[in-house]
């Protein structure tokens, strides 16, 4: 949902959004209100946080949910789940450059998550993987940095018997872990 009368720079947006209960992103300098997620969405986010947190190197990385990421000159996004290097000040309004970003689809976000956000996130020099997780079926689209670039299109996993392989981070995320308790 666009808030058409509201345009602002990043610093103003971060101060403004921090004083609101609703969730917002800044996209090209324009304020966009985020919808409240469904229970299935929240379960997948919980599962991703658990799966990632049980597999990352806690000496150098941490998993966070729903924090601000600088995604471009006039854009601040709030991905569902991110993995970032340790050391970000707890009072910071924007996280460190992420190494992994995950978004969970909703009916209204398919085009954005697989289009605009993919284009923005894949330009981040720190990013090693971007995951887009379906909410209504066991399906994950994901991009993994191979050398100095990402493949032109996403890899797709559609079987609960498979895993999402994130080789730059040495992670395999079983689809059963991602979708545990979601389709019951």
From TrEMBL:
Q: Does the keyword Hydrolase apply?
A: yes
Task: Give the domain of life.
Answer: Bacteria
Q: Which SUPFAM superfamilies match?
A: Restriction endonuclease-like
CDD domains assigned to the protein according to its UniProt record, in alphabetical order: DUF820-like
Q: Which GO terms describe its molecular function?
A: endonuclease activity
**Record key words, sorted:** Endonuclease, Hydrolase, Nuclease
Q: Where is the Putative restriction endonuclease domain?
A: 12-148
Secretion signal: which residues?
none
Q: What is this protein called?
A: Uma2 family endonuclease
């Amino acid at each position: 949902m666009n808030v058409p009368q509201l345009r602002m720079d990043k610093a103003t947006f971060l101060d403004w959004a921090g004083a609101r209960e609703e969730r917002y992103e800044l996209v090209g300098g324009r304020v966009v209100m985020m919808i409240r997620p469904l229970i299935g969405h929240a379960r997948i986010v919980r599962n991703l946080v658990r799966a990632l947190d049980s597999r990352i190197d806690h000496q150098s990385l941490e998993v966070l949910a729903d924090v601000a990421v600088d995604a471009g000159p006039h854009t601040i996004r709030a991905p569902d789940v991110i993995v970032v290097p340790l050391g970000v000040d707890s009072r910071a309004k924007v996280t460190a450059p992420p190494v992994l970003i995950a978004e969970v689809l909703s009916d209204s976000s398919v085009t954005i998550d697989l289009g605009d956000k993919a284009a923005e996130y894949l330009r981040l020099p720190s990013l090693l993987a971007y995951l887009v997780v379906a909410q209504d079926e066991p399906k994950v689209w994901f991009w993994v940095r191979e050398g100095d670039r990402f493949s032109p299109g996403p890899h797709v996993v559609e079987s609960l018997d498979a895993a999402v392989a994130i080789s730059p981070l040495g992670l395999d995320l079983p689809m059963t872990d991602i979708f545990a308790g979601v389709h019951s």
